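notes to self, project folder thing:

trying the whole complex as one job this time. last attempt i did each chain seperately and stitching them together was a nightmare. two parts in total, labels are on each line so i dont mix them up again. if this works i'll redo the older ones the same way
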Amino acid sequence: MFYRSLLLPDLRMTLEAGDTDGLGEFCRALHAAIVAEVLAELDPSELWTVLRACEPELQAEIFGFFDETIQVSIVGVADRKELSKLIEVMAPDDRVDFLEELDEAQLEELMPLIAQAERADIRKLLSYPDGSAGSIMTTEYAWLREEITVGEALDELRRQAPDSETIYYVFIVNENRCLDGMVSLRELILAKRTAKLTDIMNHTVISVRVDDEAEFVAREIARYNFLAIPVVDSHNRLVGIVTGDDALDILEEEAYEDVQRTAAIEPINESYMLTPIFELARKRGVWLVVLLVAALMTAFALKSYEEVAKEHVWMAWFIPLVLASGGNAGSQSATLVIREIATRRMSRRDKFTIFFREIKLASLLGGGLALLSFLASVCLVDHVSQAVVVTLTVFLMVMMGTVCGAMLPIFIEQLGMDPALMSNPLIAALVDVMGVIIYFSAALAILGQVVEHVPAL
Amino acid sequence: MFYRSLLLPDLRMTLEAGDTDGLGEFCRALHAAIVAEVLAELDPSELWTVLRACEPELQAEIFGFFDETIQVSIVGVADRKELSKLIEVMAPDDRVDFLEELDEAQLEELMPLIAQAERADIRKLLSYPDGSAGSIMTTEYAWLREEITVGEALDELRRQAPDSETIYYVFIVNENRCLDGMVSLRELILAKRTAKLTDIMNHTVISVRVDDEAEFVAREIARYNFLAIPVVDSHNRLVGIVTGDDALDILEEEAYEDVQRTAAIEPINESYMLTPIFELARKRGVWLVVLLVAALMTAFALKSYEEVAKEHVWMAWFIPLVLASGGNAGSQSATLVIREIATRRMSRRDKFTIFFREIKLASLLGGGLALLSFLASVCLVDHVSQAVVVTLTVFLMVMMGTVCGAMLPIFIEQLGMDPALMSNPLIAALVDVMGVIIYFSAALAILGQVVEHVPAL
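result (full assembly):
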């Protein structure tokens, strides 16, 4: 924001003056991420004019920081030949992400212009299923054979550096490209130049499989504080690496998806502003309809108690209150339990522990809320026994909501589904139906006696 | 999980045999993160016996991977002298996090045993407020003066490596320790040994201030794909660095806090299992009480329509349905808008754009849900006009819920508060009160006429 307002007027003047050198200088002087943020304010053809003013490597670096909408918009205005040069020097993982956004016609135009080696790399990366380690890895990693010396290794790294995403982790492969070890640049720098690589390298390496889930890969990187993790195929052959900055992006994305599911939204991958309104409506509407159907059940349940409700009109006042107590308590439990499930595997014992913790918590919270409900409802109703109905229902609702909120995600996980599907509103809706039954059963149990009792006075 | 069950029996046997060499070997053979996970299964004194079997540097590395509960439990059983050695070689940022968990008495026992230099470092880091860049940075960074050659720089780095968290980013400071530039180890390796550092270094460096928020620091690291970011004081003096793996932890933590706030839970920093039950009850109870009070408003609102409700008992059936439509639509909007606010600064124009998008969306979603509600409610009620009341209310509720859900977080942010405080249940509760008014007003407007009309037949 700050950068944009400061740099944009100057850039526009340079653009209008047609000062190509000035534009190139602008791109080189700032961090590529900042350049990308400023350029995002221009329209695609202006943006391309600026980008053309610098060399393909820098173009590719800046291009990698644009979001996908801007990347695609540039395809519409850029010269095909120049664009294919840019694509050739892009990081393989960014490149595939970008190409996946293009339509058939655009790909058919561009692909033949891209060099053979890069085309093969693109095809290979595109073949990995979405959301797998293969789909997020880069193929530009530094690698060495173990029989060389540290000095030779450093010389070789200097050769590989321009084509490697990182040279801080170097992977050691045998003649079949099987992963045999790794060495960090730190270790190389600290070792004697004459030392044998095989003597200083780490022979056990933690790696992931090409078909592992992207989120798992990101969590492994986070768990070990790695800068990168090697990706191997089923024969332990090194096929790529995933770097720490990608892990960060993936975990951010996953976290946001979970938040959306919690609020009953089908996850929107792009930014809110960039998502077309009909897609937003669909992703929100689906769940609103599901929740409406669930609410209809509650309406049916309420209708079935028509006679009781007619006699006790005051009961309607507390319907939102008793139902919300259960729903809110359930949302809280579900949120905490879903997180537990997501971040660590649970044994059967852990599940029992959670169950008993939630029961204890529910008694505490239910007791407290019931007391408050009694004090408040007694001011609204005519007879203490009516307040007792509300109080008892609130207590039972908090108990039931908490237990459902804790148990439903575990149950859903047992079925092999994503527990985050049990969104908070859905738990609330399910608790509502049962809440109506509890509320009116409590009323019948308590007031049934009172009604009989009163005429006897 | 996998590691635990595989390695634990073997480790227990080594422990029982009192085989110190075997224990040391166990610690050295595996990644420190895995060792920590396996050791977490032992009781504190067993754990300390294993840890003692290896050198302090490795002890500190493994210790850094324990969660705080385990770290603190070790203090109860470890020899004071040995523990202070471990503390001395810990990474400064991990060390401060650990010491903050100890009580006065424990600190008074330990601190005098820690070497003077480390004690000064601890005091300095403890002085930065919680949640600031200063509180998460490490003081062990690699630094150079710019007047030397690349060859001299590499030699100096070899000296600094053992005491630096990373040597991949090296920071250049002047005689007053002001940050003047940075150079990556990659650049150093690729340059000629005789080149002057000042010719190859980057003279503009992106840095953060020691009082910047930790979350901001983490976002800057993510934005630029940095491995580390330098932290400077108000005089641009380099005081520390924050590394990429810490950024990852911070963003994960922030994301989880947001999820909890969304579900109306005061954020729990530790794991669910480790949080004492009364603390959990308090952090959940506070919000349940707030929401109960909000629900009482709804009860009051409903009571004020007592006469209408008596005449139209069927209206009670749809109370949960109409209120939930508004609450669910509001939760969805709030979730998406809170995210927009968190990840980018919004101009006034952006806010208007959001407002109009949400209005459009609300019309689409409200229209769809209203249609479904009509079809469903018409089966439940006696008269079409009653279904019309439900339909109109659902439409208005979705409109109002969506607009409130989008606008309340923006409003809260304008007041300088965290928009995540506007949790989904709170939005639902506020929408409920207004919902009652809408529902009964709609009934009075539509049925008022019908009631007059029916007797005229």
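what i see at first glance: Chain A touches chain B through 111 residues (CB under 8 Å).
need to look closer tmrw
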